[in-house]
Amino acid sequence: MRQRIITRITIKSSHPGTSYIDTAQAEIDFWVRNGKKGSEVKKGKKAYQKPDAVTLQRSLMPMQYTVTQQSGTEPPFQNEYWDNKREGIYVDVVSGEPLFSSLDKFDSGTGWPSFTRPLEPGNIVEKKDESLFMARTEVKSKHGDSHLGHVFPDGPRPTGLRYCMNSAALRFIPKEDLEKEGYGEFLKLFDQKK
Predict the structure, then answer these.
(1) DSSP readout, 17-40?
(2) pTM for the full model?
(3) Which residues are catalytic?
């Protein structure tokens, strides 16, 4: 007997000939048939993973796809989170893995969201980037393999680092939605702030 799972679907945009509801339902049906869920729980932790290429092309906005899959860069000051001041966390738009916290966000004056440190260092991969005729350190998500941005050694204390990220690579989850979105373990960070 096939079990049907109902879930919340967020429609971000429409591409000609693509139905997000059909795509999302097909993905849900796949996981139900195979006895898995996109974010299986293993030893109390979520298992984050990158969807297949077809799913990514259908589910991501064009800028999100360009940034995360083709190492693009969005325009400064014209992106969703550069001046976001709400409390919450930032996750990979591709895999959902937690990456940064608003508690570590600062205004770098660059027009991109900037952080002093990752929320979950194990979800970040840094690699040498010599494109654009300069040496930089690229920041990628570990499980989603998404290009996020770059890290520079010119940030404020306590780390001296500036994780300069693309909003298009991130999804913001407000503090009040952490529990319902499956990130309740991070609520304690905001309680400690008080």
Answers:
(1) T--HHHHHHHHHHHHHHTT--TT-
(2) 0.77
(3) 164
